[in-house]
Amino acid sequence: MTGTGCSGTLGCYIGDTKGNPICLPPGSAKVGESCTTSDNCIPGLVCAKLVCRRLCHDDAVCVSPDTCKGKGIVFSAAPTVGICTP
To answer: For 14, which of 7, 44, 60, 79 is 20 to 30 Å away at the CA?
Structure first.
């Protein structure tokens, strides 16, 4: 969930609901900033409800008041992965 694994200047993003990675030119939007697709965000983040969010396994990586939600719903093949949301 760190956004690594792509070569050169490409960023690693989740390409589908199964969690398959895709390498794309990286975006610059940080956590909490607006987006339309995940590659608008910096690598390691996803675009959820038009806002860049962190992926998570638990609340430890989320910044309060956000908590880790959507486990097993966001990515069908990754039931322990959620998104930090308020």
So the answer is: 60
Which is nearest to 81 in space by CA: 64, 63, 58?
58
Burial code of 73-84, b = ≥16 C-beta within 10 A, e = fewer?
A: ebbeebeebbbb
- The pTM of the full predicted model, rounded to 2 decimals, is 0.82
The SS3 assignment for 54 reads strand
3-class secondary-structure state, position 40: helix
**What residues contact 41, with CB distance under 8 A and at least 6 apart?**
27, 29, 30, 33, 35, 47, 52
User: How do the domains of the chain map onto residue ranges?
Assistant: 11-85
The torsion angle over the Cα atoms of residues 74, 55, 39 and 7, rounded to 10 degrees, is -120
3-state DSSP assignment of residue 38: helix
